[in-house]
Fold each of these.
Amino acid sequence: MKIIKNKISLGIRNEITHFKKNWQLTAIAIPAIIMIFIFNYLPLYGLIIPFKNYIPRLGIAGSEWVGLQNFEFLIKTGTIWDAVFNTLAYNLVFLFVGVMIEVCVALMLYELSKKAVKVYQTAMLVPYFLSWVVVAYVLNTLLDKQHGILNNIITFFGGSEIMWYNEPKYWPVIIILSYLWKQVGYGAIVYLASLSGLDSAYFEAAKIYGATKLQQIRYISLPLIRPVITIMLILGIGKIMKGDFGLFYNVTMDSPLLYPTTDVIDTYVYRSLMNVSDLGMSSTTGFVQSVVGFILVITTNHIVNKIDPSNALF
Amino acid sequence: MKSIKKLIMTISAAAMLAAAVAGCGPAKEADEIPTLTWYMPKSIENMSSQQLVEDEVNKIFEKEVGARIKLNLIDNASWVEKMNVVINSGEEFDLVFADWGNATSVRVNAEKGTYMDIKDLVEKYGQDIKAKADPRAWQFMTFNDQLLAVPSQGKYVTEIGWTFKKDLAEKYNFDYKSVKEPKDLEPYFDTLLANEPGIIPCLGISFPPPEKAYTDVVGIPGVMFDEEQEKYIKYYDIPEYREEARLKHEWYKKGYIPADALTLNNAETYRTGKVAVMKDAGAITEDGSKSSASYGFPCADIRVGVKNTVNGDTFRGGQAVSITSKHPEKAVQVLNLIWKDPYISNTLAYGIEDVDYVYESGKGTDNPTVIPKEGSERTWALWHNYIGPLFDQWDSSWNSTEALQKMQEMNNNLTISKQSTLVFDTSSIKAEIAALSEVRKASQKVFANGAMPDFDSYMAEYENKLADAGIDKVIDELNRQYREYKAAK
């Protein structure tokens, strides 16, 4: 017992000496630490709002504690489960297909000359900076009933117009394509950066021994960027319960007939509460989404730790 | 040791800097005249005359009241969201437009305690308001014996009107004046479909209301109050509304209502001039003037029905004083002056002479006729019934004096719903109401345009969803509260 205590105090003393030596380095991080503290840690206090009957006049602390009452509406009807299913399904596809394509794009960009990379990368990044509202109108020029390019092509070849915004069956594909179009350019940057950081000696050696491009990718690039891919996946899993409101609300033009395949938790809750104006109830969704995300990140990280500790996030 | 001290100093210096930045509000004004912050929704997008309008009215306010106003104009689209933030964060402001059932409504905010009780202040400073505001309206602004807002004058009954694009109606010699019910439109629609390929026969119109009186239940979607039976019922249990939905679906299938109606913005589509029969923009005088001005081409109006029985929320547009206001007395005095002096209310509404309107006649008198700028030339507009004294409005294309008189006449003949002063205690059915809102919101547009794949199966599914959402529990609870309310009265 005493030995352990001694060890701990030794450890702390070590830390202090360590800190004394290097405090300048910590000081550099102070602005960031303060920012994170103000914007990410202080608001954590608001996590008790979902459990309160929040009345502005009384403040957060003064409002009445109501336990789980605010959460009732989330599970009241069966309909939210469709939205939950859609949210999870889309996010899983976004996560895994997204990472796959992003890595592919990064690998392709890596093979290009510096100038060409700039051109391609810029072209692929532009959609990322468009808001979903703009994307929705871009898509509308393709899908509009009368003036849409797709319907014009279809009728030109003798087909009959498709009412895109009334037919839920097409939308999983449309949503996923829109997401990838907007996201892939940005996502690929991380992988391209870590590819650029690799020691070129590996590739030179492989070339000398006659490895093909595909073999280089299979045996050098992919294994070396695996930690990055794993970390991105773990982080992505934390957001799996959050439906991107901008995407699902705007791109579908909020057409009610599409809800069976496009309604996600966030759009569902928006419809439930937009006229209710109750902060307690509206903050429950974010609470549940964050808690589930938190648990998933911890669990996934734990599993990754079991398999290969060097790939884990922490 | 020294280095730690330094570190602490650095951290505290940084923290102080952060606090200073965060706490840095507008500098305190040296003079004594307070400025009242006033939240209003924008009536039009471009409000660039704001400074001119404020300067003009502040000249009078400074002299008469000893206060200035500063308008905080919020886009209509983000009004609900922004005002929720303002209210929920306890921000300091003075005046706000209390809307009819959204974020700033007195009914929604009564429990929250957002607004100040101005009963005594209105008694003391609000003589001109009391003289002009509708005497029936005050009770709806009063909760627990506290007066939470000044009720605006308004058009309290809803008239249902249809607007015809005039050139088309004339081209096909359609006698729109003889139209009495939806079926009468069908031959016209058939003619249009046969001859005018680019034209949408009809979009976004409502049908005449049922013979019997039903009123909305404020804040609870999908439920209506039957005035005769004195009980709450489901919206589509009223045969007329169910029939309207069914007929609209027929129209949708026949192509009278366009196949892409669900993703069209009605108001924007009207302005393209491609719709033959539209919802009216105000068919009070049936001369088409208001619709022509709103949609931008010659229109003809007919009135097909009036909802003559109204509930409490109808009266609840008005101006409220925030509980966070430091100058409630000045705020009420400012409001009273607006009600007293038509020049102020009309300046707040129409803007500045020559910039936003010109006089047609009667300049300097109490009842001039003005011509407000239209379209892209417009740099200011606040609707009179948001500000307060609607019937002090100067004659213009917004509302003619004749229309205003007609509105007052209609107001005098209305019936107030039997459930009008009942304020529900929704604490036990909150979750159900949220669920009902979702079901209603998800289906409303589909019903309004008849745009379902199959009517009977869609209706059955909708009714199942309502049942799942707990509509029976809600209706039972409402009926119980109504019986208690009636017994207590």
Amino acid sequence: PNVKLVTSDNEEFVVDFRIAKMSVTVSRLMEAMNMSETDDASLLSNSIPLPNVTKAVMARVIEWCEKHKNDEPKEEKENDKRGRTTHVVSDWDKEFLKNDEFGRLCQLMGAANYLEIKGLFNDISQTIANMIHGKKSDEIAEMFNIHCDLTEAEKKEIRKKTAWCED
Amino acid sequence: FIRPCFDLPMDLLALPESFLLKLMRIMARKDRNRLRQTSRNFEKLVAESDAGHFDYCKITYYDFPREKSSEPVLIIHIDEETFSEIEITNDGLKRFLEFSSRIFKTISMNEVRLELADYIFPLDFLRQFLSKFDVELLSFVTYSDIQLEKSRSIIVNFPKSKYSLRTYFHPEYERILSLPPMEDLKILSAHPENLPMTSESFLK
């Protein structure tokens, strides 16, 4: 069975029921609209409005979901519950995200957050953490267009105070 | 309509709070430290966020003379990372507390392992530093009654944690019985010819 999803720019995407269920937000909406896998009429007569996602971003989300639709559901580890994940971005996911500049990653991340697709959200978070990893502070500032409002004297003082922990 | 690239959000701080807090939890300590040096807003975000969950933190005391300094030091390991030696002087400990308060507000650990020493051990510092920690298991290695007593005084600060203790001397039974229930208790002799006493010895 298929489910119709409508984006903010009025584009309709018809996706497999399994893909629609990968989003907690869509699942909840389907439940609220009494749409079920066994009731074709309910699926045909309804569409799910997604006002916070554009066509371009939705296409990317669906591409990711297509790849992951047969993944085994991951058991939540104790560490995950407490916040820190040992999330490993798979080779396919790295490839999928590698050409996205930061702005596009943010849009995709915003959609993953809104649609509650945890795996995609974790992939993007880890990708951004990896982008920061090992960079110097001025490189991080340049990469993310961060306007540095610290004075040279303050920066020098911070570096002095934290030099020993950079060993 | 596809938004052009220049119209895309490029400000890391403009991202949803849930994302920023998640990012803070998965970043390495050095990366957090460098991010906080990029602007006042990031300095605040890093200082006021949770550093996430780690497997273990090990705190060891060293007092043998070294090239750099003759002061006794604490060495703190968090997972694979090792902090530089923290001199056990008022200035050294104050500097470290200031630093740690700038890179995280809270942190959680599967296990904190402490190897205490008989003398000049900065218990107040340790209590202050560990007050930011949510600890699942607090483990102690002790070699004397003094160290065992210090362990007991730290345990009081972590009523919700589990504990384990390994001693390399034979403490008095009364002292052992005054300890809270342990996940694991091993009483080993510093002399290899003596057999280890285990928690079972107290259950007979």
